[in-house]
Amino acid sequence: MRFQAAVKDEVEHAPGVLEYAAGETIQAIGRRFEGFALIVKGKAELTTRDSAGKVIEIGEIGPGECFGNQVAIGGATDEIGIRAVNDLKVPVFDSESIDDLLKRSPSLAAEIGDAIESRRQAAQAARVRR
Question: What residue segments make up the domains of the chain, in order of their start?
Answer without folding.
Answer: 4-128
